[in-house]
Structure formats: structure tokens, C-alpha cells
Amino acid sequence: MQEQGFQVDPRPLVSPEQEEPATAGDPQDVLMPSLRLANDRIDAYEQKLEAIKHVQEEALLEKGSQNLLNDISSCRVKAKNVLLAYNALNKRLLRQTELEAAALLAGTSLLKVTAQDYQYLESGCEQFIQPAVSSLKPPEPSEVRTLYQEEQTVRKAFEQADYSKVIDLYSSLPLAEQQRPSFNSTFLYAQALMRSRREAEARKVLVDLLADIRAKDQAQWEVRLLRLIGDLEFGIQLYDGARDRFEEMVRMHEKMKGTREWAEQQLAALSRGYKGEEVVSYAALLKSYLGYSAERDGFSVVEQAERYIEKFPYSPAASNVDALLEDARRKANAWLDAVCARIDELAAARKFQEALLLIERIPRGILPPDKQEILRRKNDELMTAESISIETERLVQEQELQEAWNRGMTSLEGKQYDQAIEIFTSLLSSPYESKAKARIDEAATLAAHDDRQRAAELFVRANRTADLGSRQKLLLASKKLLQDILIKYPQAGLSEKVERNLSRINEEIRLIDPALLTTPTTVNGAFVQEENLPAEEAIQKEEIFNN
Q1: How far apart are CA 407 and CA 212, in angstroms?
Q2: pTM confidence score
Q3: CA-to-CA distance for 225 and 15, rounded, in angstroms?
């Protein structure tokens, strides 16, 4: 049976004096979103190319108009170019190890590729693609989370200094009827309220928690809660309530020297007069200390305590202020050390922009001059290192682009035209774009002329062979070469000539078997491969496809 009231469990309890974890924060890395975008578009364009290929084959079988075939071929080339551009960009992004270089890519190359993407989408090519029917999967059953699991998320949020999240999570804990959260979670909730400057709400939660602890005779926590509530009431100037808490502490712990001394000094401070500057200043210090959040407050509590000691050196609470100052300085130094360590970690990973953003987000007003100087020096070091890194990356990229250009030219000169087209297409979103476009057109023209010449040679061999099976294979192979020219190299300007050549070949195929004109280019169920054709006979130099 679930016990009513605050549930006390054996998990460690965060004490009022627990040091707040120092977190530096992680600015969002632009590299992963860019990679995700590139990968998503690669997948999309692979699907588009498959769909266009299917439409193309159907159009050829159904003898679609030449204008339709040209439009489909043009769309296929556009889609392939976009795919190659995204593939090239993806490879370059994967090689990035430094944030600024990735950001530059996102600002230049990525924008160019996405612009090319938009041009394709707005070109009307999508009309050729039949929409795929996607199957709908039933939603996965939502995971049923226990109170213990949810309270662990509260603890995790507190450890990350995300106090607004602590408050939200605590407020939505899955509680059964008459069930209340554990002592630990409620105590963390109260601290989150204090550090969110919601002191009045925190006081109510702590007072209820104290009452519940007393009802369960858990005296080990009673004194801590009394002190925390007393200090909080002092801080928000509920002086009568604070006096009652400290007097009770003195009565309860006459033999506990440390606790008694703290309470007695707090009572002595209250005896100076509630409206006096000394008491009001001390109340403000207590309030700031109890609500301390490192990222928001930095060294401000330290400086506030130092000003109080300087102004009121003979305050009856002087030793208490010294203790607060020492603890506040320890927390602030731990926070700044963690920030500097994070900056160094980012710099080592060449994530200079993230490190600079981390420094920029720290308000200078929460740092004393010597600490500001530490961050200023780190800022200068990061800017210098970033400049060197950017220049190095630029030189590396220039070298990579030049090497890619050289590979493309080698492929072009070696008559590896398809490979050359692929390499030059990868350079379209680079400073080599205009030259690459010219080489792509050149490679396509040369490839189309070579394929047309090979098709002519196969046609001649077909007309000279007496074997009907060999003749059929040769004619179909010649036809496939010509069809591929229309699909792969529409910019070569040979469409009209190739169409006339195809008509001539179709006439010859019809004489063998008219059914072959409405089926794919296969023989005995196998696609025609040029390397599997009958041995080539001597062919005299003559123009077969003159027109």
C-alpha cells in the first residue's frame, strides 16, 4: 500500500549546501543538420531517378512523342545532377572536423545545391513521377513510465541546472490518488523554485515538507530544514518567522555547537532592527545566496558578500557571512573552471565558433575584472586559431577541387565520358562551376557521338550476318545504344538524328519479328550486352547513319 504524505526513499538526498553543477551549455552544431538535409535529399533523388527511369521505359515502349521523350530525358539529367551535387556535398561535409568550415559550406555550397534542388522542383519534372503509396503503421504504444522514472528525470534536470524543467516535470508527476512525491524530489523542487527567484512558493513547499518530516519523526532532517526556512524567511524579510526558526534551533540543539552558533548569529543580526541598512543588506545577501544559479549569477554573490563585509566589518553575523562568501567563491570558481575547460575542449576539437559563442553568452557584469581578463585572453586565442584554421581549410579545399578537376580531365581525355561527367557534376557548386558545365557538355557530346558510331557499326554487322539470332542481337544492341543516347546525353544535340536512326533499326527489327518492338531489348529473356554479341566481322569505313 502506498504511504500517504511525502515518500521517503533510500536514494541520496541533495542537501541545502550541495554545490550546483556548473554547465557550459552546448550551442547547436550546424554540421549535423546539414548532413541530415543532404542525406534526406540523396534518398529522395535516388527514388526520383528510379521513378523517372520507369516512366522513360514506358514512354519508349508506348512510342510517346519526341517532345515527351526529350522532356523526360531532360528531367532525368536534372535530377541526376542534383543527386551528384548532394553526394559531393555530403562527402565534403563528412570530412569537416571544424565548425566554422562546416558553417561556410552551409552558407555557400549547401545554399547553391539547395537552389539547384528548388530549380528542379519548380521545373515541372515532378509531373512525370507517380506518387508512391505508403503503408500506414499503427502507432507504437506509448511507454508507461513509473513515478520513480519520472522523479529520476527531475533529478537529472536539476543536475543540469535546468530549473524551469525541474518545476515543469515535478508539476506533472504521475501521482495516484492521495500519493505525493518523494522527499528528494520535493526538496529539489523547492531549490529550483528558489533559484528561479520564486522564494515565496519555495517557502511554502519547505514548510509543508518540514511538517511531514516532523510527523514521521525524522529529526535528522528537521534541523536542516529549519535552518533553510529560517535563512529564506530572513532573505525575503519575514523577520518574525525567521526569528522563530532560529530560536527553535537554539532550543533543540543546545549541545550542537556549529548549528547553535549559526542560529545565534542570525538572531543577533535580527536584533539590530528590521529596517536598518545592515539587516536589509544581510537579508538581500541571504536571498541571493539561497537562489544562486551559476550561469546567471557567476561571481555576483561573491562580490555582494565582499561589499557587505567591507561595509559592516563588525556585523554580529560576520562569521556567517564569511562562511557564505567562502562557499559562494568555491561554487563560482568551480563554474568558471568548468566553462574554461569546456572552451579548451571545443578549441581542441576545432569548434572555435561554439567556443566563442560560449564566451559571448557569459554576461560580463557577473565577473570581476580579473575573471573578465581570463575570458578576454581566451577569446583572442580562439579568434587567432580560427583564422588559421579557416585559411588552412580553404587551401585544402582548393587543392581538393583542383585534384577533382584533374581527375575529370584525365577521364575525359581517356574517353571515360560517364566518369568525367560525374566528376565535373560534383564541381557544379564550386568556383569551377562554369568550366565544369562546359566540360560536361563536351563529354556528353563526345560520348553521344561515340555511342552513335558504335550503334552504326553494330547495324552494319547485323546486315552482313546470315544468322537470324545474331542479327537480332546486333540490331537490339544497336537500338539500345541509341536509346541510351537520348536518355543520358540529351544536351549533345543529336536527338533528331538518333530518332531517324532508331526508325531505320525498327524497320529491320520488324522484318524479323514485330513483337520485338514492344518488348525490352532482350533476346531469349536476357538483356542484350554488347560484349556478348557475335564476333565482329571486318567492316569497311562507311557512314551508315549519314542523316
Answers
A1: 78
A2: 0.50
A3: 10
